[in-house]
Specification:
Blueprint: H1 7-15, E1 23-27, E2 31-37, E3 40-45, H2 50-64, E4 75-81, E5 84-90, E6 95-96, H3 97-102, H4 108-122, H5 129-132, H6 150-172, H7 176-188, E7 196-198, E8 207-209, E9 215-218, E10 226-228, H8 230-240, H9 248-263, H10 267-281, H11 292-302, H12 304-310
Helix pairs in contact: 6-7, 6-10, 8-9, 8-10, 10-11, 10-12
């Protein structure tokens, strides 16, 4: 449980910088966001310290240089309140895609097109040192630390997550050890590939849209943002577009097929990266695996088509 500073202290911090508004906007994976007015928002971070947030600030500057067709975050100031990082950032335009679909303002078909636009734009970005310096999940050090290839960085991260959470995963995933061995084998066989900047968590809540359902902004970078191959982002995007709805699997399959056609990925390749995503994030929200995300990841690792992909040398 994270103990946050009292709200009055945070409010005073922003007031001393001339902001008179202090309205709660919401809570994300990494912090609490407040409307400050003047085109800015304030963010109180759960665990990131100012030194790490300056790395994130550099990463945001990198994003801003990528000529993306939607807005991305930009930090104006990095500071600290009672041991927690605090930032002032530009306010991003738009309404989150999940809310827009739920309200009937945007159709599922339009939402799918929007997500494909986002994935396509990100696939055209460049990687860079600022992306490789990011930490992912709750890792204490950057994912790429000491590594110079995507395969090497990914193998290390998989090894750390499996070492930490294999007791809960082994009880929920059929043939767990054999599947992990196949994941490692396939990672070791990955050829040198073009890498890009990936978001890594393209759930609909993280995409802000215009009234017409076009992407306006992309927020909440950091959960699994890094430098990676485009297939990693594509696989995750297809899987998390609708994780729990009645049409979730059908939408997933449709997006996998579409993304394979757009980018030349193979289905086995995207399903391999789905298994990787499940291993990496299964216990991201609950170390004991008692939540819906763990159940979703375990179910993914038990899917026959994903098992087949792991057993194939594609």
């Amino acid at each position: 449980m994270v103990t946050l500073p009292p709200a009055d202290l945070v409010k005073d911090h922003f007031a001393r910088r001339g902001y008179r508004r202090f309205d709660l906007l919401g809570e994300g994976m990494e912090g609490v966001v407040f409307a400050l007015g003047g085109g800015h928002v304030g963010k109180l971070w759960f665990r990131r310290q100012p030194a790490e947030l300056r790395v994130v600030k550099d990463f945001y500057e990198h994003l801003g240089s990528q000529d993306l067709p939607f807005a991305v975050p930009r930090m104006v100031e990095v500071d600290e309140v009672r041991g927690h990082g605090v930032t002032i950032e530009n306010e991003l335009p738009g309404r989150n895609l999940k809310e827009a679909v739920t309200a009937g303002a945007v159709s599922v078909d339009t939402a799918r097109t929007c997500m494909l636009t986002v994935v396509t734009a990100l696939a055209k970005t460049a990687g860079g040192e600022s992306a490789r310096r990011l930490t992912v999940l709750d890792e204490p050090a950057p994912m790429w630390l000491g590594r110079h290839t995507w395969a090497g960085a990914l193998r290390d991260l998989v090894d750390r997550r499996v070492a930490a959470f294999h007791p809960t995963l082994r009880g929920a995933v059929d043939g767990f050890d054999a599947k992990v061995a196949r994941v490692r084998h396939l990672i070791e066989g990955l050829p040198p590939s073009h890498t890009v900047t990936v978001h890594g968590d393209l759930v609909r809540e993280n995409v802000l849209v215009t009234p017409a359902g076009e992407p306006a902004a992309l927020l909440d970078w950091g959960f699994l943002s890094t430098e990676a191959v485009p297939a990693f982002e594509a696989s995750i995007a297809a899987g998390v577009f609708d994780m729990y709805g009645p049409a979730a699997r059908a939408l997933d399959d449709e997006l996998v097929e579409t993304l394979c056609g757009l980018f030349g990925h193979s289905r086995h390749q995207l399903l391999f990266y789905r298994a990787v995503y499940a291993l990496l994030t299964s216990n991201a929200y609950d170390a004991d695996g008692r939540d819906g995300h763990f159940a979703w990841c375990a179910a993914a690792l038990n899917r026959p088509d994903i098992t087949d992909a792991l057993c194939s040398d594609w």
